[in-house]
Design goal:
Elements (H helix, E strand, L loop, with lengths): L14 E4 L2 E4 L8 H15 L15 H11 L11 E6 L2 H22 L2 H6 L11 H4 L2 E8 L1 E3 L5 E3 L3 H19 L2 E2 L8 H6 L6 E10 L15 H4 L4
Antiparallel strand pairs: 1-2, 3-4, 4-8, 5-6, 7-8
Length: about 240
């Protein structure tokens, strides 16, 4: 049995060292064109059902489900495989109330003085305002933090790469996993979001990226009637 000089773990028959680093053979099932097309259509039709929901039921969710959703999010690609994300899961009602109060304070100021007239006009069809009751009703809030850099044991800093892109990809994976599990979510970005760092006591190298309430939809839930851009509006083939 071969041994990796990198991590001293025994290497299996489908692994090898490349320039001293362990690599594992990649094996995935392949499909013919007809099956790939069918799977692609089914996946699109399924994802087409994803909607941002603001009306949640207070029905509890087993933590094991949240765990699996976060593990799926963590499979996203990241710059130099640094995985520069932290998912803070908030269930405590007291803390959710504090988050709501702080978010609404920022949102009220945004709606009344920070947002341009064009911005306010663009979101009119969504009928949103500064009040965010879902932050208390949803059984879980997932607060996603991006790690601007890593803090080494000696307190020195080590750079992370493509942090925004990496964390954005992880959030996309998370939203798909939430839909697949039969739950709904909202991507909430109160601005500024520094209050989340203080309330959750996050370290200096982490910055709030996205606040995602997650749960079951309320028994009677309405979402804006919207359409997505057509393929010819979003894709250019060369």
């Amino acid at each position: 049995m071969m041994w990796s000089t990198q991590n001293r773990l025994p290497m299996t028959s489908n692994e090898k060292l490349i320039n001293g680093f362990p690599f594992v053979q990649y094996n995935r099932e392949t499909y013919d064109d007809a099956i790939m097309l069918d799977r692609s259509i089914q996946f699109h039709n399924w994802m087409e059902e994803r909607r941002t929901v603001r009306d949640f039921a207070d029905r509890p969710i087993p933590q094991e489900i949240i765990d699996q959703l976060l593990l799926t999010a963590s499979t996203a690609p990241s710059g130099a495989h640094k995985q520069p994300w932290t998912f803070c899961v908030v269930k405590d009602p007291r803390l959710k109330k504090e988050i709501r109060e702080a978010a609404e304070k920022e949102e009220k100021e945004s709606y009344e003085s920070r947002m341009s007239e064009d911005w306010l006009d663009d979101i009119k069809p969504l009928q949103t305002d500064w009040q965010k009751p879902f932050l208390e009703v949803a059984p879980y809030l997932i607060v996603v933090f991006k790690k601007a850099y890593e803090i080494q044991p000696d307190r020195s800093k080590r750079t992370n790469y493509y942090v925004n892109e990496s964390v954005g990809l992880a959030c996309g994976f998370l939203l798909a996993a939430i839909l697949h599990a039969g739950l709904v979510a909202l991507t909430h970005t109160p601005s500024p979001m520094n209050f989340l760092s203080k309330l959750l006591k996050r370290p200096e190298n982490e910055r709030p990226f996205l606040l995602i309430p997650i749960g079951y939809p309320a028994q009677e839930t309405y979402v804006p009637k919207l359409s997505r851009k057509k393929l010819e509006e979003i894709a250019v083939y060369y």
